[in-house]
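re the bet — no i am not wrong, look at it urself. input seq straight from the record:
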Amino acid sequence: MKLTDCSHRFSRSEATGPEAMEGLALAVRKRLYPFVIGAIRDHHAAEDVLQDTLVVLIERVHLLRRPDRFWPWVYRVAWSKVQDHFRDCRRACQVAADAEYEPDHCHTSVGDLLETMVHRERVEHLAAALRQLNPRCRVVLYLRFYEQMPYTQIASLMHSTPVQVRTQFHRAKQRLRDSLLSSCA
């Protein structure tokens, strides 16, 4: 089967059998592997990303309305999975760094111990201030600060408008700032 035939065969309802899905998987893997390995540079991680991409494609190929947009759609799904991979790696690194942060009290000086205690107290105040925010504000803050998403993308995720999300973000920052200042006073 030619790769150009994939968009027409797999977007139609008749291509739902195991043979069709196997053909889809082989064609997509053949075309996407160089793209994914070029982005990730790790064979095992690339295989995982391809597998995740194929799962999404198989689950949603019947929703594709325009067969001529098959390959752009496939690449968008793959790129999304590559970004998910890097986001997961960053989170894992952050968790590992946080786990290694615990100071060795036997080898720290009094100044280091005091700095550690002050830092922990600040983190506790921040966590308490975040808990006081409503869940929607917490999500907006998280997506904007940690995921660095633009307002338009956050708005589409939260079924809102970019202006409303921007307003929620600034109000959440102000409430967080006020809460932190009142806890320090």
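see?? The chain has two domains: 3-90, 105-184. told u. also The chain is about 80% helix and 0% strand. so pay up
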